[in-house]
Every structure is written in C-alpha cells, then in structure tokens.
Structure prediction request, 115 residues.
Amino acid sequence: MKNQNCAYCMEGELVAAFEIKICELESSKVYLFKEQSYMGRVIVAHKKHVSEIVEKRAIPMGDINNIACAMHEIFNPDKVNYGAYGDTVHHHLHVVSKYKDGYEWGWCIRYESWC
Ligand SMILES: [Zn+2]
Prediction:
C-alpha cells in the first residue's frame, strides 16, 4: 500500500529533486543520488511502504549484493558502505561508495570522528 506522504511511494518531484531513478529490481527501486560527493552513491527503496528494514524482509540482501557488485564494477570504490536512517522517510537505505583519496574517507558517523 502506498503512503500519500512518502517520497518513495509517490516518487514525483520530491524524489526527482535529489535522485534519478535508474532501475527497478524484484523488490526494490534504485535511484542515483544527484549529489555525487561519493561517486556512485545510490538509494535503494523497497517497493512497498514498510516502516522497518526487517518488516516483510524489506530490501532483500540479494538486491543489495547486486547493487554493490555493480558499483564495484562501474566505479571501482575502495569500500562500499550501507546506511539506513529513516525516522520520517521509511523503506530506503543508502549504498555509498567510498574512495581512499576521496570525500570523508575514514569518517565514522557513529563516533563522529575519523576511524
Ligand atoms: Zn513509502
């Protein structure tokens, strides 16, 4: 079921302001993040409006694995990181490519320090 207030359910202008939809997988939609400080960064959103990643096995690890493999092949990052923060915007996570000589390499958001 779609939530009328959710960017990933409704798509349109709210998503288009920050992301470009690049494909749909079995259970998820993949968006290239327009701001490319992390070259190749994408957002993966479950097709259904679920609150928690664990709900209905939202965003299968197979999809995430395929996305990370494609990211390694296309952008050749030194590391791929995964972040799920969705207090108000649910059912999505960030797949972020990082480079040793790139933006914020070594920055740990958990400790808000370099690690
Ligand atoms: Zn939604």
